[in-house]
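Reviewers of the previous submission asked for a worked example of the structure-prediction workflow described in the proposal, so we include one complete record here. The input consisted solely of the amino acid sequence. No template or homolog information was supplied to the procedure at any stage.
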Amino acid sequence: MSLKDAAAEEAYLKTLLDVVNAAYQTKRKQVQSLLEESNTQRVAAALPDGTTVAMVSLVKGSAEAQVVDETAFKAWVMEHYDSEIERRFVAEVRGAFRTKLLAQMTAANSAEWADPETGVIHEVPGVAIRPARARGHSVRMTQTGPSDVMDAWRNGLLAAAALPQLAAGPLEPAAGEWPAAGQGDG
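From that input alone, the workflow returned the following structure tokens.
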């Protein structure tokens, strides 16, 4: 294969990849919205002939304690747990102590920490409970799902359902998205 032929195939594939990726991102947002609106936890994805190819499941988000103000957090540890400060050229909270505190505050879903030795409850400055992973959804293909989808695509069963813009005619790029013919070929 010549360089010119290989470069042309790469350009074709890039165009298709860009269109497929944009359509996928749009559809993923739509599915997420519909799952949340309908309060549905799980739904089967099937081909037009009814063959189940995947299960789409709502995935819960999570929150965890995070240091959001390093200076305030370090000052609090220095005041109350000075032995957990490592002194080099600068003072730092020991990694193991930071990890332990944040894990316990995550478990309690609070920026307060109860000292197990004294029972004193501390409101730890510089720490907040923040989203760690956004709520989303997963798509788990059945064992034969990928080959079933590819067969359906090859047989023309998905042209109207998936990527109708590929079958509908010319694709018009957004203004300035693609260079004019003869530009950018180096």
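The chain is about 40% helix and 25% strand. We consider this example representative of the routine output the project will generate in years two and three.
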